[in-house]
Amino acid sequence: MDIGIIGAGAVGLLFAGYLGKRHNVTVYARRKEQREQLEAYGVTVWREGRRGQTDVQAKSLSALDSRHDLVILAVKGYDLDESLFITVPTETPLLFLQNGIGHMDLLKTLPYDTVMAASVEHGALKENEHTVLHKGVGATNIALVRGASGPLQRLLEEKDAAFPFVKEDDYEAMLLRKLFINAIINPLTAIAGCVNGEVASNPYYSALIEQAYGELLHLHPHMEEVISLEDIKRVCMNTAQNRSSMLKDVENGRMTEIESILGELVRKTSPRDMPVMNTLYLLVKGKESAGRMT
Fold first, then answer.
1. Active site residues
2. Structural domain for 94, as ranges
3. pTM for this entry
4. Is the same domain home to 207 and 85?
């Protein structure tokens, strides 16, 4: 396939590095310096001490090609806007990789024939403009929002054990499952300043996980059959040494994804109904604001 990837952060580079082995990949990056490095060096992926290098093309968003077989939106939720891909023909399939549920309404209303959503379980850390560390091998769960299943099937045929795709039937349940994980682990680690494993092993943080899970379940009771409290704690321990993306954003004074992950939830409910989640939201917003002012 001819694939365009909009966004050259950790996830965008990870997808380019793996998909570029078998497909013609173009990465669309905002900054000229990054585009030049991607053109010169390709994408470098480090995993378990081994280095892989993949040649890709790099272009500016203003030069977005209209002939791709698939366009992947790998930008953060707060950067997602229809203007990013307005020049893409409506018959071109789109795949969205964003965390949270803030983009669900957009997915439903886009005038595109084929729209897919994904939940990315890989751990990735951008080291420089063309290098990404693949710190945790997971899967990319992918579901059809509407349209033809051809592009989805072609991704499912990828046979790379380090970068598998898994088909999901219900995109809303898939995104909500990831939301339960992100909405609990990311804010807790960002506020506590600790790795993922510590929020499960520390009894006080663990108590907050239980309370937060109960609040989310109160809002989405049908998800009890999809994700359990034990599932969330298992994710913490399976990624025990990982530093969440929200923690890294707070540490580096960057904007976080708290709005796309928790903002939608807290605006739909009263603080009395979700006191823990509302408190976590406000604490992360406070740290985010303080970090950007320093």
1. 178
2. 2-169
3. 0.91
4. no
